[in-house]
Structures are given as C-alpha cells and as structure tokens.
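A.,

Following up on our hallway conversation. Structure tokens first:
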C-alpha cells in the first residue's frame, strides 16, 4: 500500500493507483498500516480538486475508508462544488461514517432541490443514485405500517390458481364479475378478505387500475406505474399515514445481476417521483410489486399486499420435504367431493404431516381417521398439525405394508411416494404395485381410493390389475407431472 501512496503523491498513475489502493484496503485483514493512516490528511483532501472526475470519486471512497475527523468538512465542501453528476453520490456515501449534524439541514434542502429537477435520459441514472445515497446518509426515510382497508369497493383481484382448480374456483366465487384467465380467476370485489373463504387459490394479487403493462425500461416502467396513480391506489388499499415499504419481484429470464440493476433503477425513480413516499425496503415491506415479463418485452404489473393475511392454512405449522402444498390438497378434495361421504372412515397410508386428511375433513367432515407413515419425523409433525386443526386422528408410526386393522375403510386418500432421484424409480414402482394390492384389502366393496401421484400411468395399470375402476383422472401440475386419480374398489 505504501508504494501505491508514494506514486499517488508523486502524481504517477493516480487513477489506477487509487483503484488498486481501494482494492487492497478492502482486503486488508490486519487493518491499515499505521504510517499510511498517519499521513492520510496530508495527501487525500487535495485529490478532491483533481481534474479527473474518477480520481475525485475514488479519493472520496478512500476518505470514507481511511477515517479522519477533518475529512467530513472536506467531503461536504467537495459535494457542494461538484458539477459532475456521477461523482456526487461518492461524497455522500463517504460521509456516512461521519457526524453530519452541521450539514444535515443543508443536505435536506439539497435533497428537495434534486427531487424537483427535470429528468432527462442522460442524468436519470445518476440523479437516482444521488437520491439513494442521500436517503441512506440522512437516515430519515422510515417505512410506516398500515392496515388493509375494509372499503375496497370495485377492486380487481387475480386469484392465482392451477389449471385443474380454475373451474371449481370460479364456481365457488360469489362475485357478479368474474372471469377465468390464464393464471387463475379474475374477479371484481368489494371485499378481498372474503375471497379467502375459498381454499382453491395460491395467492391473491391486485391489478393497478387502468395499467395492463409497463415498459421494459426500468425508468419508463416506474414513470408509467406512478402515472397510473399507484400512490392513490395504495392510499385507498392501506389505511394510515406514512411512507409505503415495498419490494420488487421480477418474473423474467434475467440474471441476478441484471435483476438487481433493474430494481435499483426502478426503485430509485419511484422514490424520486413519490418524494420518498415509496420506499424499496426488502427487509420491511407491506407490498410486493410483481413484474411479470411478457413476450413483447413489457411487464405485467401485479401487487400483493402482505398485511392482508392469508389464514386459511394456519394449522400447517410443520412440513417435510415431500409435503403436498395445502392448496393442492384442498383442490384434490374439491375435485373428489362428489365421491366423498360424510362421516366416512378414512385412511391415509402415507400421511406425511397430515395435510391430506385435514383438507379431506374440511371439505366433507369425516368420522374415524387413521394416519400411517413409516417416517417418524412426519408422524411427530402430523400430530402437531392435526391438533392445531382440531382433528382427532389415530396416528400410527408403521410401514403401511405391515398395517393391520379389524374393520374396513370407506376411503383411502393419500399422496403416494415418488422418486426424487432417477435411480430410485424402480423401487418406487415396486412399492406402488404392492400398495394397490394392499389397499384393496382395507377398503369396503365400493370404497373410494384417491391418490396424488407423479406416476399416473403406472398407477392406472396397477389399479386395473387389482380390480379398481377409474372414476376420474385430473392432471394437477404439468411441470411436476402430478395426477389426482379417483378409483372405486
């Protein structure tokens, strides 16, 4: 490091040596050399007036790293006189480690002036970077917490659902305006909270009124979203004063670095346009702004409100890796409802954490229920989940092939095992073949067998061989290749 400083002080390769010095200082595990720190006030401040803008920028970075009390005023004065836009954020970032009480009021005034500047493509990136650095330095932008409104008259909501669930979901909804669309069911409602009476959708997403899509350019996208009256819409949906914290989720074929770059520009522009009322706050947010890529290069915009709590599946506190999603289990039971009997004696031979039995009971109340699994951890977790669901159930930690019972069941409902690795497929199919033979010995004549499986074709064959009649077959998720099969014994 000392050699680099010597060359810098001699005016040799100043820009390159500053960059190298910053890199070495970041990697200095044992701290900075004493002789370097002792002389830092003699040579660093002078670099803030260097003719090369990048030298000034890197000198500011070093002054943030090589702390000295006298540097605070040097950095503030350099910021005030700096005319090169991309350099200005570096002074603010460097000042973050210093006492800025003497400059705070002037910095607030400067922030207000920046917010009122005319934005052109040439300066938008740097203005937003300066505003981010200013906000970080002042530390005065605070996210408020709001309550979700009880007065959401005429709100358009997308209930995201799997293709297998959309028709059943549509039939459940008591809305005058509703429509099946690609991602689910679109409804107009005065009471979004009431939509949670249905268990058949994954999540609730909100459209920004009059905004079908935004540009693929982050700055233009932010302006279009803000121009569509995003802020008034948030004030309608979220009750209470203060700034709104949000995060941005991009659903697109884009690298993590590109996403980060896009979000930084997009959020910076929203901050500027809203005078700090819209804060990108990934660790403390109430709203997700979801940008979904379209083939045109534009983004569809949807909002998710995290203070509109989804309490449909609170019983499911414990899971294991192979657990079925509770929405999928609920959809399965809705599709099987015509074949389910109230007060039935029901067995789940691969119960996991109990999700299938809970959703079976919620759709059509059961009588006696038995849950069997060879995986001890799953049984332990199922006990907790079933207790939370207030479902009485006989829990048995045993391999289903060794299960014995004195009377027959009306129904078997289960999520059967599947192969995680290709080399496990042969063993899984052998297990499924034995399962169908065994299942037939536990069902009453005419009993119902419902299985959720990734091996639908083989299960149909094994069922037929063992005398089961296929009543219904549903493809649940195309990507995972899951089927919901309903048989009669």
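Then the amino acids I'd put at each of the 489 positions:
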């Amino acid at each position: 490091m000392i050699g680099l400083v010597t060359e810098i002080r001699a005016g040799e390769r100043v820009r390159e040596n500053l960059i190298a010095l910053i890199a070495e200082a970041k990697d200095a595990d044992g701290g900075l050399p004493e002789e370097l720190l002792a002389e830092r006030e003699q040579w660093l401040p002078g670099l803030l007036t260097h003719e090369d803008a990048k030298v000034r920028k890197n000198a500011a970075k070093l002054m943030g790293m090589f702390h000295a009390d006298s540097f605070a005023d040097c950095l503030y004065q350099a910021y005030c006189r700096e005319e090169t836009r991309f350099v200005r954020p570096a002074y603010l970032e460097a000042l973050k480690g210093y006492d800025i009480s003497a400059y705070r009021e002037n910095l607030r005034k400067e922030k207000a002036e920046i917010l009122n500047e005319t934005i052109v493509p040439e300066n938008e990136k740097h203005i937003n970077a300066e505003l981010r650095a200013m906000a970080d330095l002042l530390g005065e932008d605070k996210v408020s917490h709001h309550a979700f409104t009880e007065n959401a008259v005429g709100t358009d909501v997308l209930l995201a659902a799997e293709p297998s669930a959309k028709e059943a979901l549509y039939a459940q909804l008591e809305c005058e305006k509703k429509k099946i669309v690609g991602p689910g069911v679109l409804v107009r409602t005065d009471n979004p909270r009431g939509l949670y009476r249905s268990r058949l959708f994954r999540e609730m997403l909100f459209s920004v009124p009059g905004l079908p899509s935004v540009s693929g350019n982050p700055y233009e996208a932010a302006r279009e979203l803000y121009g569509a009256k995003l802020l008034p819409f948030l004030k309608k949906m979220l009750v209470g004063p203060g700034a709104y914290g949000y995060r941005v989720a991009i659903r697109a074929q884009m690298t993590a670095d590109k996403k980060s770059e896009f979000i930084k520009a997009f959020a910076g522009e929203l901050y500027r346009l809203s005078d700090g009322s819209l804060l990108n706050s990934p660790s403390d947010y109430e709203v997700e702004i979801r940008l979904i890529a379209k083939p045109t290069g534009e983004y569809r915009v949807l909002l998710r409100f995290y203070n509109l709590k989804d309490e449909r599946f609170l019983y499911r506190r414990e899971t294991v890796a192979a657990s079925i999603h509770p929405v999928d289990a609920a959809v399965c039971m809705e599709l099987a409802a015509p074949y389910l009997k109230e007060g039935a004696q029901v067995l789940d031979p691969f119960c996991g954490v109990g999700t299938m039995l809970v959703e079976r009971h919620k759709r059509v109340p059961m009588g006696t229920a038995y849950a069997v699994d060879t995986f001890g951890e799953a049984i332990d977790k199922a006990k907790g989940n079933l207790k939370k669901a207030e479902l009485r159930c006989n829990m048995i930690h045993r391999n289903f092939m060794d299960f014995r019972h004195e009377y027959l069941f009306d129904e078997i409902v289960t999520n059967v095992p599947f192969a995680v690795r290709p080399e496990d497929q042969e063993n899984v199919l052998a297990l499924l073949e034995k399962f169908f033979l065994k299942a037939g010995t536990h069902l009453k004549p005419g009993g119902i067998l419902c299985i959720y499986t990734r091996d639908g074709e083989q299960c149909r064959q094994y069922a037929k061989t063992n005398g089961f009649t296929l009543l219904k077959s549903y493809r649940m998720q195309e990507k995972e290749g899951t089927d919901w099969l309903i048989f009669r014994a």
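The mean pLDDT is 92. Curious whether your intuition agrees with the design.

B.
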